[in-house]
Amino acid sequence: MRLLALVLLLPLCGCLGYSTYYKPGTPLREAETLETECEVSALRKAPVQIVRDVTPIYGKDKKGRTRIIGYDYDEYDVNAGLRARVTRQCMQRQGFERVSIPVCDSEALDARGYSVVRGTPPLDESICTMRTKQGRVLLRMGPG
Fold first, then answer.
1. Beta-ladder partners of 103
2. Is 22 part of any domain?
3. What is the mean pLDDT of residues 115-120?
4. Measuring CA to CA, how many Å separate 104 from each of 126, 135, 139?
5. What's the DSSP call for residue 60?
6. What angle do CA 138, 143, 144 make, to 5 degrees?
7. Contacting residues for 38 by C-beta, under 8 A, at least 6 apart
8. Residue 119: C-alpha distances to residues 58, 72, 122 (Å)
9. pLDDT the model gives residue 4
10. CA 98: distance to chain centroid?
11. 14 CB contacts (<8 Å, ≥6 apart)?
12. For labelling, which of 55, 61, 67, 82 has a CA lying 20 to 30 Å from the CA of 18?
């Protein structure tokens, strides 16, 4: 839990972070694969169930009487929340935590320097991420 709090409070940049499941020592791509497997399992346990709500819209007719003048339709998946919870529990059983890794600020990288992080070390305030053609990469801010 402390890891999650630390990562969420990282003051590295003002932009949104990269939300992922993280476990030190496990490559990001492996985590993504395991997350997909957990999502498929959750879909089997809590399949999509679309419900349609119909709400009447009331208005006044020419004589001032209240009448139904139309309907508002709303569709949603009643199992979406359960599916997300089952996925999260599946990942937690495998030792992963949901974290938000800050996106690297290019100005800060230029000013402070950086080094590419090999593997997935414990997260701290010097770690940020950026997308490359090969996928996500972790960087450590400061002299390499």
1. 129
2. yes
3. 86
4. 10, 14, 8
5. E
6. 60
7. 86, 87, 90, 91
8. 60, 51, 10
9. 43
10. 8
11. 105
12. 82
- Count of domains forming the chain: 1
Which residue bears the tokens 């590419």?
116
With CA atoms as reference, report the closest residue to 103 among 3, 13, 32. 13
Residue 8 inside a domain? The answer is: no
Query: Is 44 contained in some domain?
Result: yes
Model pTM score: 0.69
The answer to whether position 66 is within a domain reads: yes
Break the chain down into helix, strand, coil percent, rounded to 5: 30, 35, 30
Say yes or no to pLDDT of 1 above 60: no
The whole-chain average pLDDT of the chain stands at 86
Residue 64 structural domain: 17-141
How much of the chain exceeds pLDDT 90, in percent? 55
Q: Do 139 and 129 contact (CB within 8 A), yes or no?
A: yes
Q: What is the model's pLDDT at position 144?
A: 58
Q: Residue 104 has which token pair?
A: 């690297």
Position with higher pLDDT, 119 vs 54: 54
